């Protein structure tokens, strides 16, 4: 059996990137079909222009799009650049996760988070919805993955933090939804519970920074739209992508940023 320690960090990142490219290809199906209520299993992917099924050799992440120059092999209809971008972004997120967590029992949990975060962020931008078909199943999957992470690391306190953090962030967003109807949807509330669990598993600092980052990024984006006249005070703006971006910051640098902040106060 190969000893994981024999594979250097860059090797693990490369393996994770390849896995991410494959997962990203599947995420393209999820992003397109889930909001439409379609099956993600069948039928097989086909060109929307001519309806011809995509050949296996034309379904290689990123490479096939480049070799085909962004066009269908059969009818030459243009293929959106979003497809290779999603695949490439997933590969980069997986590689970054591997570098951050290394050969850790927590790695599968946070790779899963990266995958659903990318899918939910793009779906929310497209439709202003966070589909239950993705969010609700993520709860039991997250619970299982974080239990395994705590079992693998021996840090059961992290699991307790995750439960508390998920409940706190869910309740916070629920209260905000009630206090200011229309400013936040229940999909955001359900997503908050998931993100709170992932952030708090890492630490309280990650939870605080991730939660604050969501409102900071969302607020800055809204101000930018108002200044440029691209939105009014009553314009609905999806909050999910900013929650996910804030969570990303919390996961990667939240504990460090929080410690630095507390150091300034003291």
Describe the protein's architecture and organization.
- This protein has 266 residues and is mainly alpha-helical.
- Helices cover 70% and strands 0% of the residues.
- It has helices at 9-33, 63-67, 82-101, 107-127, 132-153, 156-179, 186-202, 204-228, 240-265.
- It starts with 8 loop residues before the first helix and ends with a helix.
Tags for this entry?
single chain, mainly alpha, 266 residues
Please give the structural blueprint.
Elements: H1 9-33, H2 63-67, H3 82-101, H4 107-127, H5 132-153, H6 156-179, H7 186-202, H8 204-228, H9 240-265
Helix pairs in contact: 1-3, 1-4, 3-4, 4-5, 4-9, 5-6, 5-7, 6-7, 7-8, 7-9, 8-9
How would you summarize this macromolecular structure in one to three sentences?
The protein has helices spanning 9-33, 63-67, 82-101, 107-127, 132-153, 156-179, 186-202, 204-228, 240-265. The protein is mainly α and 266 residues long.
The whole-angstrom Rg is: 20 Å
Instruction: Give the biggest beta sheet.
Output: none
Number of helices: 9
Task: Using the alpha-carbon principal axes, give the shape.
Answer: globular
- Overall mean pLDDT score? 92
> Low-confidence stretches at least 5 residues in length (pLDDT < 50)?
none
| SSE arrangement, N to C | HHHHHHHHH
Helix content: 55-70%
**Would you count the extended β strands for me?**
0
Structural class based on helices, strands and sheet pairing: mainly alpha
The share of residues in extended strands comes to under 5%
Distance between the termini: 50 Å
